[in-house]
Every structure is written in structure tokens, then in C-alpha cells.
């Protein structure tokens, strides 16, 4: 269970979140929707440790975590970036292995076996030795998902997962997320794409764009 | 063509070539790592360090290498700092070329999207791992053409050591030309420089091809 308690966040004078609370239960798939500039990505970046929280607490299964300052807490929420951010100089397998092998010091043979299993599950078994530029947008996104899952995160977060995809690929990723939901994976989807959310039908919270800071959920 | 004459001056030219290559290789081996360190410092965000390094780069790029050589060998003794000729050459060349490499690597580092650092962070990589595994390989690919230009320049700039009386390739050719009143030694010197730069150009192209495996 991931909890955000009394989160405050401002950029200069602009308050984005004021005493914001949110609970994501294990196995929950939560959609965070709202227009551009509402602070959806900021929320995701705070949860994943890419942006500091001004004040408040992040708790994972009741234990406070600080992924921004504490590297041991990084990776507990995996991220699939809007533009994937695969490492272009590494092939698919190496992209997936880099976290387990170098950050978690998992034995390479065991990590490779796990990575190959993940790639097979995601329909990428034949692309393990391909480089990101050789893949379609949808395939690149699946590699990004595999890379995030390789660290066995408690929560998998997606930042605008449909922004780089055509409608057919959007339907594919919706099916994938629904499949993960059925498997009991805890997921957080940040998007402004309402038709996409309609395909998945997760629990949804909306963040607004006015001067009022987000205060609820 | 007087082959006997050419053979007779070859030992002197080869000795000069050896000196040129020593200057070239030593400068390259030391200035590239120093340039990388300086480029990281330039992006460190620590203002005093940035100011000092910017001043260093400005000084090195804003004055001729010839002047720097003269200053280090003839000027520094005035404040009781002494270098032998080769040490003065290495110091001047390494400091000068590291400044150029630092600017090249700084540009390369700026070209890496913030998202790559973010991805590395959420994958729990340390800053050092991020640099070694994610950033540096991409920077190397992007800077090869610019570094290549500097490497070719370095071969030719090595001839500036004549000012300190060091027997490099050009000086060996000049001595023979003046002594024997012929341009043949200088023609040979030109051929050696062309051969060296051709070899380097081929090496750099091969390196570019090696890194062409991804986009």
C-alpha cells in the first residue's frame, strides 16, 4: 500500500499540492487525470523520487520512504516514462538488465534468466538483441515496462503512456495494463487521455488546473 | 631524386618523428581524461569551481599555444618555477588541449537529455554508474568528430615545440634543409605529417563506424 500524507509542493509562489493525501491499495490500478499543467506528472515525479516533496510523508506498506534522497528507496515505484527514455546504446536485454545487475547486484545469469522471462511475457523475446531505434513505439514502451518491472517495484507508474502511441498501440497498452491489474499489480497511470482511461476503467482521481492547489483524494 | 641523400637524412627525420609521436601520445593520453574531469566540473553547479574552470578554459583557448609554451619555460622561472624542456612541453600541451576537450565534452554532456538521468535514478544507479554506463558511452559517440579535429590539430601543433629547441620532426627537417640547402627534407617532413594524419583519420572513421551501431 502506497500512502501520500499531507503532501505539500510548490514551485516558487505557485502551490501545486497543499496537504494532499492519497492511498493506493495493493493491487489497485489508479488513474490520475487532469489537463496539462495540473501537476499530474509532478505527483508522479514526487512518488518516484525525481522531485523533492516540500513537506509530508510517503509511506510504503506503512514504512516512510524518501526516494528523492535515499537511493535504497528509489525503484520501489517503477516508472514508464512518457518518451520511454530507453538507453539507446544498449540493446533491449541490456536495458532490462542494467538495474538488477548494477544497482541490485543480482547475479548476471539469474538476472538474464528473469529478464528473458519478462521479455517473453511482453512479447519481446525475439527483440532481446535489438537496439531501441530498431523497435516501434509500442515495442519500446514494452521494453520500458520490462526495465521497470525487472527491479520488482511495489508500484508501477506510467507517465502519459499513450502520448507516443497510435490508436492501435494505445489499445494494446490498455490490454497490457488490464492484464497486469488482473495479476494484482499495483499501478498508477498519469494521463489526460480520457478515452484511454475508459478502456481500462481504473479508480480515477482528477487534479485541476486552477490556482487552487490539490487538496483531496 | 637523390635516394642516397634521402636515406642519409632518414635517421634524423625518424628521430624527430619519434619525438613528435611522444608529444602527441602523451598529450592525448593526459588531456582527454583531464578534459572530461574539467567538463564535469563546469557542469557541477558549484559556482567557485565553475568560475575557476571557466577562467582556465578562457585563458587556454584565448592565448596562442606558442605563447603558453614560452611562458611556461621562460616565464615561470622568474617566479622560481622551473621545468625542463620536455616537461614544459607536456604541461603546456596537456593544459591547452584539455581546455579544448573540456569544451567539447561539455557540449556532449549538454546533449544528454535529463530523462536519461531520471531513468538511471529510478533504476537505482549511483551517479558514478550513471556516468559510466549511461552518459559517457553516449557522449563519446557524439564528440568523436569534434575530438577528431583536435587530434589532427595536435599532430600539427606539436611542431610548435621548435621554440624550445626540441628536436621534433619539423626541426629535424629544417636543420637538414638549412645545412644542405635543399627543400627535400621539408618535402619528406610534409609526407610524414600527411601519413600520420591519414592514419589518424582512418582510425577516427573506424571509431565512428564502431559507434554507428545505434542511433
From TrEMBL, chain A:
> Does the keyword Transmembrane helix belong to this entry?
no
Q: Which Gene3D superfamilies match?
A: P-loop containing nucleotide triphosphate hydrolases
Q: Where is the ABC transporter domain?
A: 2-217
Q: What InterPro entries does the entry give?
A: AAA+_ATPase (IPR003593), ABC_transporter-like_ATP-bd (IPR003439), ABC_transporter-like_CS (IPR017871), MetN_ABC_transporter-like (IPR050086), P-loop_NTPase (IPR027417)
Which SMART domains did the record assign? AAA (SM00382)
In alphabetical order, the GO MF annotations are: ATP binding; ATP hydrolysis activity
Concerning its family, UniProt says: Belongs to the ABC transporter superfamily.
What this protein is called in its record is Glutamine ABC transporter, ATP-binding protein
Protein's organism: Schleiferilactobacillus harbinensis DSM 16991
From TrEMBL, chain B:
Where in or outside the cell it occurs: the entry states: Cell membrane
* Membrane-related topology note: Multi-pass membrane protein
Q: What is this protein called?
A: Glutamine ABC transporter, permease protein
The alphabetical list of record keywords is: Amino-acid transport, Cell membrane, Membrane, Transmembrane, Transmembrane helix, Transport
Q: Is the Manganese keyword given for this protein?
A: no
Annotated GO CC locations:
ATP-binding cassette (ABC) transporter complex
Domain named ABC transmembrane type-1: residues: 17-200
**GO molecular function terms listed in the Swiss-Prot or TrEMBL record:** transmembrane transporter activity
Q: Name one GO biological process term.
A: amino acid transport
Spell out the InterPro entries in the cross-references.
AA_ABC_transptr_permease_3TM (IPR010065), ArtM/GltK/GlnP/TcyL/YhdX-like (IPR043429), MetI-like (IPR000515), MetI-like_sf (IPR035906)
**Similarity comment text for this entry:** Belongs to the binding-protein-dependent transport system permease family.
Write down the PANTHER family for this protein, in alphabetical order: L-CYSTINE TRANSPORT SYSTEM PERMEASE PROTEIN TCYL, MEMBRANE COMPONENT OF AMINO ACID ABC TRANSPORTER
Which Pfam families does the record associate with it?
BPD_transp_1
> Where, by residue number, does the polypeptide cross the bilayer?
20-43, 55-76, 82-102, 181-204
Q: Which Gene3D superfamilies match?
A: MetI-like
- Chief subcellular location equals membrane
